[in-house]
Amino acid sequence: MMHEVEVIKANRKISDRTSGKITDILRVAPYARVSTDSEEQLNSYKSQVAYYTDLVEKRKDWELADIYADEAITGTQVTKRENFQRMINDCIDGKIDMIITKSISRFARNTLDTLKYVRMLKERNIAVLFEDENINTMTMDGELLLVILSSVAQQEVENISANVKKGLKMKMKRGELVGFQSCLGYDYDPTDKSISINEAEAIVVQYIYDRYIDGAGAYVIAKELTKLGYKTKYGNTEWHDTAVLGIIKNEKYKGDFTMQE
After folding, report:
1. pTM confidence score
2. How many domains does one find in the chain?
3. C-alpha triplet 54, 86, 51: angle, nearest 5°
4. Greatest CA span in the chain, whole angstroms?
5. 236 belongs to a structural domain
6. I need a surface site. Which of 51, 101, 144, 191 has the fewest CB within 10 A?
7. What CA–CA distance (Å, rounded) separates 212 from 23?
8. Any transmembrane segments, and where (predicted)?
9. Chosen domain end from 142, 160, 178
10. Is 64 strand, coil or helix?
């Protein structure tokens, strides 16, 4: 569990937005992100938060504005990163003087987004410090280097994505199951990758198909399942027509397992 970070409000402004004059204390905002929900990556996320907390505390000329961190979500779309957007909003509100992040790929995953936010922040006299690339956007000469590095970062992401897709296809060729864990009526053992029928859940699936063959619609079936107290795969007793339709349209119930359509 991530430790709570005490936010210390700045006693004085770091920079005069009109004259550009810099004072001796920076309100620093570290940004950390991991892109998967695996235990290893979540531990990495916690390590990043601890690292940046310690880093800021060691500097007498820095004070912590806040720590912004996104976890267990993809980084390819900035709009999904809630804490990133919160950080940008705080920059616009004048609460931050410098952002610290591990690398360009941690800050934004494509050239367009990188340049958009760096330019916007630079106009407000807010620096972004990329540790791996050793770039401070307030002191760098032009944007050419940033364009090159962010392009490289984007290429790295695309390579990782291609490798993941290749790995999934190799699993499929070997007959290994991908994405089967939440299928009502079946239990999946990730250890030996075997499937077994869940008798209690199978009754619900049979009921759905029997009622559908009788002419009942998904909305009616959902109401009946809720009234009967049947549970969904996630243990909910309230059913919706979308859940019923998802089962009716699922090709697995006729013995097929379609992948990579």
Report:
1. 0.51
2. 2
3. 15
4. 77
5. yes
6. 191
7. 71
8. none
9. 160
10. strand
Out of 22-36, 80-94, 117-131, 139-153, least confident range: 139-153
Residue 15 domain flag: no
Question: Which helix or strand (DSSP H or E) is residue 127 part of?
Answer: strand 127-130
Q: Strand 127-130 vs strand 135-136: parallel, antiparallel, or unpaired?
A: antiparallel
Same-domain status, 193 and 67: no
Distance CA 167, CA 163 (A): 6
- Boundary of a domain, candidates 160, 177, 201: 160
pLDDT of 123-152, one tens digit each?
999 999 999 888 888 886 656 667 766 776
Higher pLDDT, 227 or 165: 227
Mean pLDDT of 229-256: 86
Q: Which two tokens stand for residue 48?
A: 């990043």
Q: At 92, list the tokens.
A: 């616009």
* Residue 49 maps to a domain: yes
Say if 5 falls within a structural domain. Answer: no
Same domain, 103 and 204: no
At position 101, the amino acid (one-letter code) is: T
What does R_g of the chain's alpha carbons equal in angstroms?
25
DSSP-assigned letter for residue 14: S
Is the pLDDT score of 176 beyond 80? no
